[in-house]
Each structure stands twice: as structure tokens, then as C-alpha cells.
Amino acid sequence: MNMLFIIGLGPGNPDQLTPEAQTALAGVTDLVGYGPYVARVQAGPDVVRHGSDNRVELDRARHALEMACAGRRVAVVSGGDAGVFGMASAVFEAVKQGPPEWRALDIRVIPGVSAVLAAAARIGAPLGGDFCVMSLSDNLKPWPVVCERLRHAAQAGFVIALYNPRSHARPDQLGEAFDLLRTELPGDVPVAFARAIGRADERLLLTTLAQARGEDADMSTLVLIGTPLTHRIARPDGSAWLYTSRRVPA
Amino acid sequence: MNMLFIIGLGPGNPDQLTPEAQTALAGVTDLVGYGPYVARVQAGPDVVRHGSDNRVELDRARHALEMACAGRRVAVVSGGDAGVFGMASAVFEAVKQGPPEWRALDIRVIPGVSAVLAAAARIGAPLGGDFCVMSLSDNLKPWPVVCERLRHAAQAGFVIALYNPRSHARPDQLGEAFDLLRTELPGDVPVAFARAIGRADERLLLTTLAQARGEDADMSTLVLIGTPLTHRIARPDGSAWLYTSRRVPA
User: Fold this and answer.
1) Are A9 and A41 in contact (CB under 8 A)?
2) What per-residue confidence (pLDDT) applies to A250?
3) Which residues of chain A lie closer than 8 angstroms to B82, CB-CB?
4) Which of the 8 DSSP states describes residue A198?
5) Where along chain B do its domains lie?
6) How far is A207 from chain B (nearest CA, A)?
7) Which of residues 152-181 of B touch A (CB under 8 A)?
């Protein structure tokens, strides 16, 4: 049966790529995905790399499905986990809309360490309670929906992890999100800006909701907003850990 | 400097344990955690295994911190990712309450593939949109808080991933949760019961919110509740994939 792999490459550090993903990647003829992720994969000279821009997920997914149906061994790759704002949803959306033979493919999604898990681990245990994971981008959903979701998340007491917090085209939305959250949560709630965790250009900033500024994030940053049950532990060297209590008082 | 590792072992399949975790485990003298997870680690005969019951997280964390301060090389282990309803939060809570020397430890949290990511990958791409991850247990938080969070999550349009959906001591709460969600969401919203994904006794059931029953879950099940944007793709062999659309209409 023709196969298609959808593979999460992890945060960037090769030590965080699972053996399962590595084994799958070792057998492919074609790599499909956003250029920088395709470039990151260690593969032999015969493997064809189909890197593309990050706005063409559905086209890219269809191309991968066509090649898989033609008998190529294709891996669609994403950073982190492909199911979390990666390529997995686009591939299945293409399958749903596509010809019947795509449904007969053996499609295997190989999970990876997502950016939110890597960032949380670097910070301490900020996801210790219930949490939500959102994309702040309004490319695929209306901005009022984003705001409504932030409000529900804060009222629910979820720790909030934000993907795609800021881009050149959306410089102000993260600041607006902080303004909205400041109306729902105390100002001393911890906020973390975790940039490129696990890569050479990693940078971590811990602050509070009162102090948090949109400008502290870029496209490679994961923003974590705590709850009143998220605590800061100061360390002797001046650094700190954050953790969220598992216990919620009555 | 004395060190302490907190390590996520992944869902159970050794192929899903990262090289980073494997390297860290290779250097330890002591393993601390819930018995079945401690037993799962491949380690030499000199490694001391401190397996314990699953209700004593804080005691277990303190024991690990004490041993680390005494110069032992200790790993606290959890299934999946230690930051997601695993041991990481308990360790930092113990640090916060403990003696100053615990804050000077070099504590390294090694992320893992969490159960929710493994289950989602097995199902297709159910986490394609925004989502939340909750523990349904009321051992550490009041049941009304759980219900309020479910309501916010449904109203926000989050896919909902439920850890600890059911136990012998809490046989009826998952059914109550489904009843509550049926008042907020259409009955045809997809629901998945993903049991022990990645292990030999794996079992997957796809159904709808209207049909979902608490009895379909046990302690090893991860329950995923979709949204009106979660779609089912029927396959020629009778199985199906679920995915959640990345696009939210206005």
C-alpha cells in the first residue's frame, strides 16, 4: 500500500527528534514542507527536497499526496509536532476534498516534541494545571474569535500558550491581546517569552502580565501566560523557574 | 553543581523516547516516579529504582531533591511529558516550599512526546485548531471548577483533550462531563477514546458526542472532544481519520 508520513521534527535540537521519526525519515524519497524544516532534515543526496513558502499549506499537501499515490515515499515535515499548527491538518483537509484514492493511502502521523512542551520544560513546569494552546494569528480565523477565545481561556483559569504571537504583518495584535488579558487577570501573573528554545539562538524572558509588551516577541517566540496559580521561584544565580500548581483551591 | 533530571518517557513505545532523554537516563544512579514508569526504564543493575504509588507526588519529589542534594544523579520520570499532568509541577512545588539549597540545584526538565500528541497523531489531526488540555480528576480541584472549565472550553471552540477521564473512585464524572458538553455543542461533534496509544494494548474508538458514554473510557484513556470544525474522513477499509480545520469562518 502506498504510504505518506507526516512527521514532527521537534523543536530543532536533533537530540529531541524521536527514533521513530528518524527511522521514518531514513526511508523517504521526497521531503515536503516549509523550506527551513525541509532543510533541517539530514538525508542522503538522492532525497528530493520540496521546500516551499509557509503560506501554501494546502498546495503543498496536495503535491505530497499526489507523489505518494504515484508510489514515492514522501514525508511531509513540520517543526515541533505536525499536529499542533503544523502540516497534519492541511494534509487531511486535502484528503477530505481530494480524489477517493487519497483515502486509501496509509497515512502515518509521527508525533514530535512540540514547541510548547519544549518551552515549558525550559521554564520549569508552567503547564502544571489545565492549559490551552492557541494561534494568535488572524490569517485563518477572525480577530474577534481570537479575542473571545482569550477571554474564555482567562476566565477558565487556563494557562495560555500562544503560537504565532507576532509577525511583520501583525505587529500590534500581541499587545492588544495583553491589554485584553489585563482586564481579566491580575497584573502579577507570570508571562514567559520563549524564543527558539532548543536552538542556538534561544532566548528566554520572564516577566509579568503588567510588564509584558508585544515587542518582546517575534515570529519564533512562544508566549506563555500564567494564571494566579502560576508561581515564580527565584534562584541564587538571579534566574527563575515558573510552575503552575496542580491544586486549585475551592 | 548537583543536578536533578525530570524526564518525560513518552507514551510507552521506546521509539518515541528522545535521544536527549535516553542520554540523561544513561547517567543516573536513581530513578524516582510512579512504579510502572520507573519499571519501564532500561537501566543497569546498579541503578536504584524508587517506584511508588501515584498519590504521593510531593513526598516523591522531596525524596528526589534530597538525594540530588546529597550528590546522587537522580531522574524523576513520568509517562508522556513530565510537564503535562506529570511530576514536573510537584518537583517545583517542593522546591518552592523547601530549603534554599534546593533552589541551587541544576534542575533539567527533558520534554517528551505527551499522550495527547501521540493520541492525536494516531487519530489524524484533531488538534488542528486551538485546543485545551484538562485533567477531569477532582482530586486536586473542585468538580464545579472542572465543569466551569469545560463550559468555557466548549464556548471558546477549543478541541478538548481530557486526561484522567475516569477511575474506579470516579466512575460517573466523564458521563456528567458529556452531559454538560451536550448542552453546549452539537451532538455530531466527533469524540475519540484513545487508550494506551503506542502500547501493545492500544485501542481507539471514534464516535460522536451524542453517542459518547463514560463507560467507554478507563484510566489509560485519553478522551478528545472535537468542535463543529472537526471533520471525519471515512476510509475504504471502514476506519476513519479525524481532523480539525485550521480555518474558522467569520
Assistant:
1) yes
2) 85
3) 121, 125
4) T
5) 3-113, 116-244
6) 18
7) 152-153, 155-158
Contact A107 B145 (CB under 8 A): no
Whether residue A91 lies within 8 A of chain B, CB to CB, comes out as yes
In contact, A73 and A47? CB cutoff 8 Å: no
- pLDDT for the residue A56: 87
Nearest Cα residue in chain B from A103: B235
Q: Which of B95, B124, B127 is nearest to B109 (CA)?
A: B95
Beta carbons of B158 and B131 less than 8 angstroms apart: yes
Q: Note whether B248 contacts A: Cβ–Cβ < 8 A.
A: yes
**Nearest alpha carbon to residue A25 among A52, A12, A6, A10:** A6
Q: Which amino acid is at A154?
A: A
Intrachain domains A3-113 and A116-244 with the same fold? no
State the nearest Cα–Cα gap between A109 and chain B, in angstroms. Answer: 5
Q: Taking the CA of residue A91 as centre, how many other CA atoms within 13 Å lie in the half-sphere pointing to its CB? A: 35
Report the alpha-carbon distance of residue B139 to residue B248 in Å, rounded.
35
pLDDT tens across A156-206, in order? Answer: 999 999 999 999 999 999 999 999 999 999 999 999 999 999 888 999 999
CATH superfamily of B116-244: Tetrapyrrole methylase, C-terminal domain (3.30.950.10)
* Phi, psi at B231, each rounded to 5°: -115, 155
Convert the pLDDT of each residue in A233-248 to its tens digit: 999 999 999 999 999 9
Residue B201's alpha-carbon distances to B12, B122, B196, in angstroms, are 11, 14, 6
Q: Which of B16, B82, B248 sits opposite A145 (nearest CB)?
A: B248
Locate B205 and state its grid cell.
Answer: 474508538
Distance CA B142, CA B207 (A): 28
pLDDT in tens, chain A (250 residues): 899 999 999 998 899 999 999 999 999 999 999 999 999 999 989 999 999 887 789 999 999 999 999 999 999 999 999 999 999 999 999 999 999 999 999 999 999 999 999 999 999 999 999 999 999 999 999 999 999 999 999 999 999 999 999 999 999 999 999 999 999 999 999 999 999 998 889 999 999 999 999 999 999 999 999 999 999 999 999 999 999 999 999 8
User: What is the C-alpha separation between B88 and B5, in angstroms, rounded?
Assistant: 10
The hierarchical CATH code for the domain B3-113 is 3.40.1010.10
Closest partner residue to A149 among B16, B91, B157, by Cβ? B157
Nearest C-alpha of chain B: how many angstroms from A212? 22
- Tell me the angle at which helices A173-182 and A143-156 cross, rounded to the nearest 10 degrees: 40
